[in-house]
Amino acid sequence: MKNRVLIIGGSGFIGSKVAHNLIRSNYSVTVFDKKKSLFDKKVRFLQGDVLNIKSLEKAVKGHDIIYNFAALADIDEARYKPSETIKINILAVSNILQISLKYKIKRFIQASSIYAMSNEGGFYACSKRASEDYIQEFNKMYKIDYTILRFGSLYGPNADQTNGIKKMILSAKKQKKIVYRGNRSATRRYIHVEDAAILCKE
């Protein structure tokens, strides 16, 4: 039997694509999220909040591999919500790791960001660095196997309003010009969300 996979935050842009990809590879997949997305009927859905420890524990129990895509991922939003960013991007990760230890999870897979290695990105970048540090320390102390996936700039269907490419397309349609608020010398290498999902398979 294939490993039983729990995808926390699996209704989101990348998490939902990973769920579909794993199902196609005959994994047993459960998604835990606040909202339900359009899934294959083979995907089991559990509704819950990543900050609710009881809900998390019920979700984690019985699984072999945990993917964590839950995050406050909008850099602009994080700039004005530092405490909420800590709760979702750091505290929730620590709680998931502790529960994973209790139920002997085989591997914890964290969705991180290239901003974790950057001097830019504000509170969002700080939170991603901190969560990576916690994961590595859990591995040192408790031998929890882990994988950290540092995503760059993704694009593709079902991207939300915070997605960089989506923002530029919308500005082109509404304002008849492309608006980019980043550094003029900045460069980006974009990857399609479906390709990223394929690479996420453990």
Task: Give an overview of the whole structure.
There is one protein chain. The chain has 7 helices and 8 strands. It has helices spanning 13-24, 53-60, 75-80, 82-102, 122-142, 164-175, 193-199, and strands at residues 4-8, 28-33, 44-47, 65-68, 107-113, 146-151, 153-155, 190-192. It has a 6-stranded parallel beta sheet, with helices on both faces. The chain has a two-stranded parallel ribbon with strand order 7-8. Helix 1 (13-24) crosses helix 7 (193-199) and helix 2 (53-60) crosses helix 4 (82-102). The chain starts with a strand and ends with a helix. The model has no long low-confidence stretch (mean pLDDT 89).
- Cα separation of the termini: 15 Å
What is the count of DSSP helices, taking H or I runs of 4+ residues?
A: 7
The major β-sheet equals: 6 strands, parallel
- Silhouette: globular
Instruction: Provide mean pLDDT, rounded.
Output: 89
Low-pLDDT regions: none
Give the strand order of the largest sheet, numbering strands 1, 2, ... along the chain: 3-2-1-4-5-6
Strand content: 15-25%
Radius of gyration: 17 Å
Helix share bin: 40-55%
Along the chain, the helix and strand elements come as EHEEHEHHEHEEHEH
The structural class is alpha/beta
Number of strands: 8
